[in-house]
Amino acid sequence: MMVTVFIVEDELKIRNSIRDFVEQEVSGFKVIGEASDGAEATVRLEREAPDLLITDIRMKGMDGLELIERIHQSYPDMKILIISAHGEFEYAQKALRYGADDYLLKPINRLQLTLFLNKVRDEKAPLSSSGDTENAKQERLVIRTIKQRVAERLHGPITLQAIAQEVHMNHRYLSTLFKAETGINFSDYIERCRMDKAKKLLKESKLKIYEIAGLCGYASAKHFMVIFKQAVGCTPTDYRDRPERQSGEDYEPFQ
Asked: Per the structure, how many domains does the chain have?
Protein backbone atom coordinates (compact mmCIF):
# COMPACT_ATOMS: atom_id res chain seq x y z
CA MET A 1 0.00 0.00 0.00
CA MET A 2 1.39 3.40 -1.04
CA VAL A 3 1.67 6.21 1.50
CA THR A 4 -0.02 9.28 0.00
CA VAL A 5 1.66 12.68 0.36
CA PHE A 6 0.55 16.31 -0.04
CA ILE A 7 3.17 19.09 -0.33
CA VAL A 8 2.65 22.76 0.57
CA GLU A 9 5.50 25.09 -0.44
CA ASP A 10 5.35 28.51 -2.07
CA GLU A 11 8.62 28.13 -4.02
CA LEU A 12 8.03 25.98 -7.10
CA LYS A 13 11.63 24.78 -7.36
CA ILE A 14 11.66 23.51 -3.79
CA ARG A 15 8.22 21.94 -4.17
CA ASN A 16 9.31 20.07 -7.28
CA SER A 17 12.51 18.89 -5.60
CA ILE A 18 10.63 17.53 -2.59
CA ARG A 19 8.12 15.77 -4.85
CA ASP A 20 10.87 14.15 -6.93
CA PHE A 21 12.74 13.02 -3.82
CA VAL A 22 9.68 11.52 -2.15
CA GLU A 23 8.62 9.57 -5.24
CA GLN A 24 12.02 8.59 -6.62
CA GLU A 25 14.41 8.22 -3.69
CA VAL A 26 12.22 6.32 -1.20
CA SER A 27 9.93 3.43 -2.08
CA GLY A 28 6.28 3.28 -1.08
CA PHE A 29 5.23 6.94 -1.48
CA LYS A 30 3.02 8.78 -3.96
CA VAL A 31 2.48 12.55 -4.08
CA ILE A 32 -1.23 13.09 -4.74
CA GLY A 33 -1.39 16.87 -4.47
CA GLU A 34 0.48 20.15 -4.12
CA ALA A 35 -0.34 23.71 -3.09
CA SER A 36 1.55 26.99 -2.88
CA ASP A 37 -0.14 28.35 0.26
CA GLY A 38 -2.17 27.32 3.27
CA ALA A 39 -5.54 28.54 2.00
CA GLU A 40 -5.33 26.48 -1.18
CA ALA A 41 -4.02 23.51 0.78
CA THR A 42 -6.94 23.58 3.24
CA VAL A 43 -9.48 23.11 0.45
CA ARG A 44 -7.42 20.46 -1.33
CA LEU A 45 -6.60 18.49 1.81
CA GLU A 46 -10.27 18.05 2.68
CA ARG A 47 -10.74 16.42 -0.71
CA GLU A 48 -7.47 14.47 -0.96
CA ALA A 49 -7.06 13.33 2.70
CA PRO A 50 -3.40 12.19 2.36
CA ASP A 51 -1.47 10.10 4.87
CA LEU A 52 1.33 12.69 5.12
CA LEU A 53 1.44 16.47 4.84
CA ILE A 54 4.79 18.16 4.14
CA THR A 55 4.56 21.93 4.54
CA ASP A 56 6.69 25.03 4.80
CA ILE A 57 6.02 27.45 7.67
CA ARG A 58 6.49 30.86 6.06
CA MET A 59 4.01 31.40 3.21
CA LYS A 60 1.82 34.23 1.98
CA GLY A 61 -1.75 34.33 3.25
CA MET A 62 -2.44 31.44 5.60
CA ASP A 63 0.93 30.26 6.89
CA GLY A 64 1.98 26.76 7.84
CA LEU A 65 1.18 27.18 11.54
CA GLU A 66 -2.46 28.05 10.93
CA LEU A 67 -2.70 25.25 8.37
CA ILE A 68 -1.28 22.69 10.80
CA GLU A 69 -3.62 23.76 13.58
CA ARG A 70 -6.68 23.40 11.35
CA ILE A 71 -5.64 20.12 9.78
CA HIS A 72 -4.64 18.46 13.04
CA GLN A 73 -8.04 19.26 14.54
CA SER A 74 -9.89 17.76 11.57
CA TYR A 75 -7.48 14.91 10.75
CA PRO A 76 -5.58 13.94 13.92
CA ASP A 77 -4.16 10.79 12.28
CA MET A 78 -2.54 12.67 9.39
CA LYS A 79 1.26 12.78 9.70
CA ILE A 80 2.75 16.28 9.39
CA LEU A 81 6.34 17.24 8.54
CA ILE A 82 7.47 20.86 8.81
CA ILE A 83 10.13 22.34 6.54
CA SER A 84 11.67 25.34 8.30
CA ALA A 85 14.35 27.90 7.47
CA HIS A 86 17.30 28.16 9.86
CA GLY A 87 16.03 31.39 11.44
CA GLU A 88 12.59 30.00 12.26
CA PHE A 89 13.37 27.51 15.03
CA GLU A 90 10.76 29.01 17.36
CA TYR A 91 8.13 28.59 14.63
CA ALA A 92 9.09 24.93 14.31
CA GLN A 93 8.74 24.39 18.05
CA LYS A 94 5.31 25.98 17.97
CA ALA A 95 4.35 23.76 15.04
CA LEU A 96 5.21 20.67 17.07
CA ARG A 97 2.86 21.87 19.80
CA TYR A 98 0.13 22.32 17.17
CA GLY A 99 0.42 18.67 16.12
CA ALA A 100 3.34 18.38 13.69
CA ASP A 101 5.25 15.09 13.96
CA ASP A 102 8.69 16.45 13.10
CA TYR A 103 10.53 19.30 11.38
CA LEU A 104 13.56 19.58 9.12
CA LEU A 105 15.69 22.64 8.51
CA LYS A 106 16.41 24.04 5.07
CA PRO A 107 18.43 23.06 3.13
CA ILE A 108 16.88 19.65 3.72
CA ASN A 109 19.19 16.85 4.78
CA ARG A 110 18.50 13.89 2.49
CA LEU A 111 19.29 11.28 5.13
CA GLN A 112 17.05 12.89 7.75
CA LEU A 113 14.16 13.11 5.28
CA THR A 114 14.66 9.49 4.26
CA LEU A 115 14.62 8.33 7.88
CA PHE A 116 11.42 10.27 8.58
CA LEU A 117 9.70 8.88 5.49
CA ASN A 118 10.74 5.33 6.37
CA LYS A 119 9.30 5.81 9.86
CA VAL A 120 5.99 7.04 8.44
CA ARG A 121 5.83 4.15 5.99
CA ASP A 122 6.52 1.60 8.72
CA GLU A 123 3.82 3.07 10.95
CA LYS A 124 1.31 3.10 8.08
CA ALA A 125 2.03 -0.50 7.05
CA PRO A 126 -1.11 -2.59 7.67
CA LEU A 127 -0.84 -5.18 10.41
CA SER A 128 -1.26 -8.66 8.98
CA SER A 129 -0.26 -12.21 9.74
CA SER A 130 0.37 -13.04 6.09
CA GLY A 131 3.83 -14.27 5.17
CA ASP A 132 4.37 -11.60 2.51
CA THR A 133 3.60 -8.75 4.91
CA GLU A 134 5.77 -10.21 7.65
CA ASN A 135 8.63 -10.70 5.21
CA ALA A 136 8.29 -7.11 4.03
CA LYS A 137 8.36 -5.86 7.61
CA GLN A 138 11.46 -7.91 8.35
CA GLU A 139 13.19 -6.61 5.23
CA ARG A 140 12.47 -3.01 6.22
CA LEU A 141 13.90 -3.72 9.67
CA VAL A 142 17.03 -5.12 8.03
CA ILE A 143 17.45 -1.99 5.91
CA ARG A 144 16.97 0.21 8.97
CA THR A 145 19.62 -1.80 10.84
CA ILE A 146 22.02 -1.47 7.93
CA LYS A 147 21.54 2.31 7.81
CA GLN A 148 22.27 2.56 11.51
CA ARG A 149 25.46 0.52 11.14
CA VAL A 150 26.57 2.61 8.17
CA ALA A 151 26.05 5.81 10.19
CA GLU A 152 28.15 4.39 13.03
CA ARG A 153 31.02 3.30 10.75
CA LEU A 154 31.51 6.21 8.37
CA HIS A 155 35.00 6.73 9.79
CA GLY A 156 36.19 3.40 8.39
CA PRO A 157 35.78 0.94 5.50
CA ILE A 158 32.27 -0.38 4.83
CA THR A 159 31.58 -3.24 2.43
CA LEU A 160 28.33 -4.80 1.32
CA GLN A 161 29.78 -8.27 1.81
CA ALA A 162 30.63 -7.62 5.47
CA ILE A 163 27.24 -6.06 6.21
CA ALA A 164 25.47 -8.95 4.45
CA GLN A 165 27.26 -11.45 6.67
CA GLU A 166 26.22 -9.55 9.78
CA VAL A 167 22.53 -9.61 8.82
CA HIS A 168 22.76 -13.18 7.49
CA MET A 169 21.84 -12.40 3.88
CA ASN A 170 23.32 -13.13 0.50
CA HIS A 171 25.14 -9.97 -0.57
CA ARG A 172 23.63 -10.02 -4.08
CA TYR A 173 20.11 -10.28 -2.69
CA LEU A 174 20.86 -7.57 -0.14
CA SER A 175 22.13 -5.28 -2.89
CA THR A 176 18.86 -5.69 -4.80
CA LEU A 177 16.76 -5.28 -1.66
CA PHE A 178 18.61 -2.14 -0.57
CA LYS A 179 18.09 -0.50 -3.98
CA ALA A 180 14.40 -1.45 -3.99
CA GLU A 181 13.80 -0.05 -0.49
CA THR A 182 15.86 3.14 -0.73
CA GLY A 183 16.01 3.93 -4.44
CA ILE A 184 19.82 4.14 -4.34
CA ASN A 185 22.72 1.70 -4.67
CA PHE A 186 24.48 0.69 -1.45
CA SER A 187 27.82 2.18 -2.50
CA ASP A 188 26.17 5.45 -3.56
CA TYR A 189 24.32 5.57 -0.25
CA ILE A 190 27.57 5.25 1.70
CA GLU A 191 29.17 7.99 -0.39
CA ARG A 192 26.19 10.27 0.20
CA CYS A 193 26.33 9.65 3.96
CA ARG A 194 30.06 10.40 4.00
CA MET A 195 29.43 13.66 2.14
CA ASP A 196 26.59 14.63 4.50
CA LYS A 197 28.87 14.04 7.48
CA ALA A 198 31.71 15.98 5.84
CA LYS A 199 29.47 18.97 5.11
CA LYS A 200 28.20 18.97 8.68
CA LEU A 201 31.73 18.88 10.10
CA LEU A 202 32.90 21.60 7.73
CA LYS A 203 30.13 23.93 8.88
CA GLU A 204 30.00 23.03 12.56
CA SER A 205 33.63 22.37 13.53
CA LYS A 206 37.10 23.87 13.17
CA LEU A 207 38.70 20.56 12.29
CA LYS A 208 41.32 20.56 9.55
CA ILE A 209 40.43 19.11 6.16
CA TYR A 210 42.60 16.03 6.65
CA GLU A 211 40.95 15.39 10.03
CA ILE A 212 37.48 15.58 8.49
CA ALA A 213 38.63 13.28 5.69
CA GLY A 214 39.69 10.69 8.25
CA LEU A 215 36.46 10.94 10.23
CA CYS A 216 34.51 10.39 7.02
CA GLY A 217 36.44 7.27 6.05
CA TYR A 218 39.01 8.65 3.61
CA ALA A 219 42.62 7.66 4.23
CA SER A 220 43.84 10.33 1.81
CA ALA A 221 42.86 13.98 2.19
CA LYS A 222 43.64 14.51 -1.50
CA HIS A 223 41.24 11.74 -2.51
CA PHE A 224 38.60 13.17 -0.17
CA MET A 225 38.90 16.61 -1.76
CA VAL A 226 38.50 15.14 -5.25
CA ILE A 227 35.39 13.16 -4.26
CA PHE A 228 33.93 16.12 -2.37
CA LYS A 229 34.29 18.47 -5.34
CA GLN A 230 32.70 15.90 -7.66
CA ALA A 231 29.75 15.43 -5.29
CA VAL A 232 29.19 18.99 -4.05
CA GLY A 233 30.59 21.11 -6.86
CA CYS A 234 33.21 22.98 -4.84
CA THR A 235 36.23 22.27 -2.65
CA PRO A 236 35.80 21.56 1.08
CA THR A 237 37.42 24.90 1.91
CA ASP A 238 35.08 26.81 -0.42
CA TYR A 239 32.09 24.98 1.06
CA ARG A 240 33.17 25.89 4.60
CA ASP A 241 33.59 29.56 3.65
CA ARG A 242 30.38 29.75 1.62
CA PRO A 243 27.55 31.66 3.36
CA GLU A 244 24.25 29.88 3.91
CA ARG A 245 21.55 30.66 1.36
CA GLN A 246 18.01 31.01 2.60
CA SER A 247 16.15 31.66 -0.62
CA GLY A 248 16.53 32.84 -4.17
CA GLU A 249 16.90 31.54 -7.68
CA ASP A 250 20.05 29.50 -6.95
CA TYR A 251 18.78 28.03 -3.68
CA GLU A 252 19.53 24.31 -3.38
CA PRO A 253 16.64 22.58 -1.53
CA PHE A 254 18.70 19.57 -0.42
CA GLN A 255 22.04 19.04 1.26
From this structure: 3
